[in-house]
Specification:
It contains 8 helices and 2 strands; from the N terminus they run ββαααααααα. It has 164 residues and is mainly alpha-helical. It has a two-stranded antiparallel sheet with strand order 1-2. α5 crosses α6.
C-alpha cells in the first residue's frame, strides 16, 4: 500500500492525480493476475476520476458571495429535496448554490455567469425549482437563505420575484 494513499470509508483512494499516474501501470499489471482484471482496472479508473474531480473542485475560484461548505451543509438536505432523484447529479449542489448567491449578489445576467460555476442553464433550472412557492408564502430558497443568515440576498430575491 503506497504511503500517499488515504483510507476512506469505502476503500483506498489515491490522494493526488500524480498517484493515479504513477500507480496505474502497477495496478493494471496486478489486475491481469486476478480473476476479474477488467473490474479492477475499471475501479481504478473510477477512483482516479474521483480524484480529478476533487482536484477541479478544490481549484475553483472563490467569490465574495460564496458561503462556507460547513454553513451550506445545514441547508443541503432541504435543497436536495426539491428535485426528484432520477439520475445522479453532474454538478455539485454547493457550486450551484454558490452560483445562485453570485447571481443574487451581483444582479448579472444568467448568461454572464463565470465559467467556474456550472452552466447557466443548470443554475437557472435549480433557481426556478427553489423559488417556486411551497408551503405558505415562502420559497425554498428563502428558507435556506434565512437559515444561513443571508438577509440581503432574501431582499434581492423578493425584489426579483416580485414578492413583498
Amino acid at each position: 500500500m503506497p504511503c500517499a494513499w488515504r483510507l476512506k470509508k469505502d476503500g483506498m483512494i489515491p490522494n493526488t492525480l500524480l498517484d493515479c499516474i504513477y500507480w496505474a501501470p502497477v495496478l493494471e499489471s496486478a489486475a491481469t493476475m486476478r480473476y476479474a482484471p477488467s473490474m479492477i482496472g475499471n475501479l481504478f479508473r473510477i477512483i482516479c476520476l474521483q480524484v480529478i474531480f476533487e482536484a477541479i473542485d478544490m481549484a475553483r475560484h472563490t467569490f465574495p458571495s460564496d458561503v462556507p461548505r460547513e454553513q451550506f451543509e445545514t441547508v443541503r438536505e432541504m435543497l436536495e429535496a426539491a428535485r426528484r432523484k432520477t439520475r445522479p447529479r453532474k454538478h455539485d449542489l454547493y457550486d450551484v448554490f454558490c452560483a445562485v448567491l453570485y447571481f443574487l449578489s451581483t444582479g448579472s445576467a444568467w448568461r454572464s455567469m463565470p465559467p467556474e460555476f456550472p452552466p447557466w442553464r443548470t443554475v437557472h433550472e435549480y433557481f426556478t425549482q427553489w423559488t417556486m412557492l411551497r408551503d405558505g408564502d415562502r420559497t425554498l430558497l428563502e428558507q435556506a437563505l434565512d437559515r444561513i443568515g443571508r438577509t440581503a440576498e432574501i431582499a434581492r430575491l423578493r425584489h426579483l420575484t416580485g414578492q413583498r
